[in-house]
Structures are given as C-alpha cells and as structure tokens.
Amino acid sequence: xxxxxxxxxxxxxxxxxxxxxxxxxxxxxxxxxxxxxxxxxxxxxxxxxxxxxxxxxxxxxxxxxxxxxxxxxxxxxxxxxxxxxxxxxxxxxxxxxxxxxxxxxxxxxxxxxxxxxxxxxxxxxxxxxxxxxxx
Length: 135
Ligand code: CMP
Prior knowledge:
Elements: E1 2-8, H1 10-14, H2 18-27, E2 31-38, H3 42-48, H4 58-65, E3 70-77, H5 81-89, H6 102-106, E4 115-117, H7 121-132
Antiparallel strand pairs: 1-3, 1-4, 2-3
Bound molecules: adenosine-3',5'-cyclic-monophosphate (CMP).
C-alpha cells in the first residue's frame, strides 16, 4: 500500500466535475484517505509549485491556482500509487492525453488540465504536508 496526492483544479471544481473525478478514482481502486476543499493563498501556492519557480509559466500558474477553490485528496492504493495515478491522470497537456484518462475527459488546455498529480513519492509527501499540514 502506498500513497499519493491528487488535486482537482479550480475550473473543474467551478464546473462541478469533482464528483465524477472522485468516482473514477474509486472505480480504479484508489482509496480516499483525506480530502479537503480549500483555496491557496499566494505563499502556499508558491511553496506547493516551488519546483516550477523561474519557469515562464510560473506566475500564470500561481494566479490561476489561487483563483478559486481546489479539492485536495490523499489517495492510497495497492502497489505504486504515484505511478498508477499518473497513468490514470494522463499527459499534462490534455491534447496529448489518451482516451480513458482524467485529463482527456475533463481537461481543456495545458493550464486548465483539470487535475494535478504528484510526480514522485518525495513530492507527494511534500505536497501532502503543505495541504494537510503534516510535519
Ligand atoms: P501540474 O501537474 O499541476 O503541474 C504544473 C502545471 O503547470 C501543469 O500541471 C500545467 O497545468 C501548468 N503549465 C502551464 N504551462 C505549462 C508548460 N509549458 N509546461 C508544463 N506545465 C505547464
């Protein structure tokens, strides 16, 4: 059993897609351990996305992710949760995402790509700590 972090982004929450996305997670045998709807403030968003600091899209990403509520989920699954979730989520750009993935079904473009999923175990632990306030 291992864990990872998934976050439903503002446009998907705003358009009411969170229920369908969570249903898809459950059908794929992810277990929801903790879940929280919240809105990032600037400093917390910058800490969350610190790996992207300095990239050309960083400031746009911060203003977008702080623009409305997100839903954060700690997910648990038999096997390699980080990798299995990334497969279910699909390519970062929905235009490249395969049918059957979350971003294919719910993403619009590179910025409005419906969800964020941790890309490694260390990043999952870091992101879970930022969102749920673990040590
Ligand atoms: P996410 O998995 O949340 O991680 C960082 C986000 O930055 C990414 O999804 C995209 O929504 C967003 N983004 C915007 N522009 C780019 C880009 N050129 N390359 C990668 N990610 C981008």
